[in-house]
Write a structure and sequence with these properties.
Length: 482
């Protein structure tokens, strides 16, 4: 992370410095050169103006006289500029300095030519005998046709150079200041970028370690904030997946615990009886037969549990396919009731069937519907001590509604929604004689839903329960038109 902040810092610094150096430095150099040219032009203008003034004073004096010489001296003093006069041959004939150093020397042919043609000339010269580089302008001496030669004005250009140098120095300082300022700004910028990034990295590491409840909190509203939000969304999803995984694990553990519990009870009983028999503790044949019968029934219970479990697993894994065809409900429930008659008679419970006339056929797998009905009727008889169990079938819209009503113990309201859960038994302490697996209603629910039907329960504790199952009619499932 430190590396990252360093590289952000380096990149920002590089671009800032490049901008400052290119922007300030380069434009400074350009500006100073433009300014130099501008000052030169201004100086040149001024010299030309002065030269024209000098010419105005001497344009009618073709001869070098004392008075002309004095005029030149006085202009030299008032303009602080050296003045030379040259004749039509380009030979210097008079100077304002009164020295004879330059007198008699020739000026450049190009200057002489342009002056004789009536044009001005400008040149930057290093003139022999003059220390500083000079800016010179030449104008014709005379007027119109009468040109006697030329007037040259010299001004040192040192001042111009000094101004340009000052300007460059100022720009250099400004650039240096810009470099220092941009380094400070880059430090702040890279800190303000890397700080939230570091927070994000810390949180992401925590999330990576499995702390899915961690969230990134950054106080920016830029792309870094977007990144933080994306990471938070990711963490939320991970947290959800983890919660689901945890829940599944819980369900799996509960399931294993329930299966073990359901198996252990009959196995412990069988083991106890076997030990007693082995140890020869049961001497009477009659008692022994009783022991065998109990062990047999416990074995049957384990069988039932395994069958129910297999059934439920297959249903939950969508491995059960229904063999559906039109089924006569009245016939089916009468058969079921008939098979439970002995059990009902044993308990002294009245078992009755009521079916509506012209009951439509349902489109179902008859074996599976029989399984549903058996589970419900078995429960009704199991949890009813006296009174009656009624099987009622009638039409309800597109379904045939089958109700199993009993006058048994009923179910308290808080357990009503839980009885469809696998392994749920209202009273775990009830007598072993009941021998439920707690899977019956879970299987009923799965089977009904597989038939695209629905089921519900109503109950009044102490008065009885009604389990209702709706199964689709043939007409509903396969409309006549098709
Ligand atoms: P079990 O094998 O225990 O009957 P079920 O899944 O069939 O398992 O039923 C779950 C629980 O619902 C039962 O243990 C019982 O407590 C309650 N129950 C089911 N049917 C009835 C009923 N007709 N009357 C009262 N309680 C019932």
């Amino acid at each position: 992370m430190l590396g990252m902040s360093k590289s952000i810092f380096r990149r920002l610094l590089f671009s800032f410095l490049a901008t400052v150096l290119l922007g300030l430095g380069l434009s400074g150099i350009l500006v100073s050169s433009f300014a130099r040219t501008y000052i030169y032009d201004a100086k040149e203008e001024e010299l030309l103006r002065m030269a024209k003034k000098v010419n105005a004073a001497i344009k009618n004096s073709p001869r070098i006289t004392r008075s002309l010489q004095n005029t030149l001296i006085s202009y030299d003093q008032s303009f602080d500029t050296r003045i030379w006069l040259f004749d039509t041959n380009g030979k210097i004939v008079a100077t304002s300095m009164q020295d004879e150093v330059f007198t008699g020397k020739s000026v450049a042919v190009s200057i002489t030519e342009s002056v004789l043609q009536g044009k001005n000339a400008v040149s930057e010269l290093q003139i022999e005998g003059l220390q500083d580089p000079m800016l010179s302008v030449s104008v014709p001496w005379g007027e119109g046709e009468k040109v006697y030669g030329g007037i040259i004005l010299h001004a040192p250009i040192e001042g111009v150079e000094r101004t340009a140098a000052q300007m460059r120095e100022t720009i250099l300082w400004a650039t240096l200041f810009g470099v220092v300022l941009s380094t400070a700004m880059v430090s702040y910028l890279s800190w303000s970028i890397s700080r939230p990034l570091r927070t994000i990295e810390r949180t992401a590491t925590e999330i990576g370690r499995g702390n899915y409840s961690e969230r990134v909190v950054v106080d920016t509203s830029d792309e870094i904030n977007d990144l933080a939000q994306t990471i938070n969304t990711l963490a939320e999803k991970l947290e959800k997946v983890e919660r689901e995984r945890h829940h599944l694990e819980q369900v799996r553990n509960d399931f294993l615990a329930n299966v073990s519990h359901e198996l252990r009870t009959p196995l412990t009983a069988i083991q106890g009886f076997l030990e007693a028999l082995q140890d020869g503790l049961v001497e009477e044949e009659e008692a022994r037969q009783k022991y065998y019968a109990v062990m047999y029934s416990e074995t049957m219970q384990i069988n039932r549990l395994v069958d129910d479990l297999m059934d439920l697993m297959k249903l939950e894994n969508n491995e059960v396919t229904l063999a559906r065809f039109p089924v006569n409900v009245a016939e089916l429930i009468n058969k079921i009731a008939f098979s439970f008659t002995p059990e009902a008679e044993d308990k002294g419970i009245d078992l009755a069937v009521e079916t509506a006339d012209d009951l439509p056929q349902i489109y179902a797998d008859p074996d599976r519907v029989a399984q549903i009905m058996k589970n419900l009727v078995k429960n009704a008889l199991k949890f009813t001590e006296q009174g009656e169990v009624r099987l009622i079938a009638d039409v309800d819209d597109k379904y045939v509604r089958i109700r199993v009503q009993d006058t048994g113990m009923g179910i308290v309201a808080e357990d009503l929604h839980r009885i469809w859960e696998r392994f749920f038994k209202v009273d775990r302490g009830r007598s072993r004689k009941d021998k439920g697996t707690g899977l019956g209603l879970a299987i009923v629910k799965e089977l009904v839903e597989l038939h695209e039907g629905k089921c519900s329960v109503e109950s009044v504790p102490g008065e009885g329960s009604t389990f209702t199952v709706w199964l689709p009619t043939v007409a509903y499932y396969r409309p006549v038109s098709s």
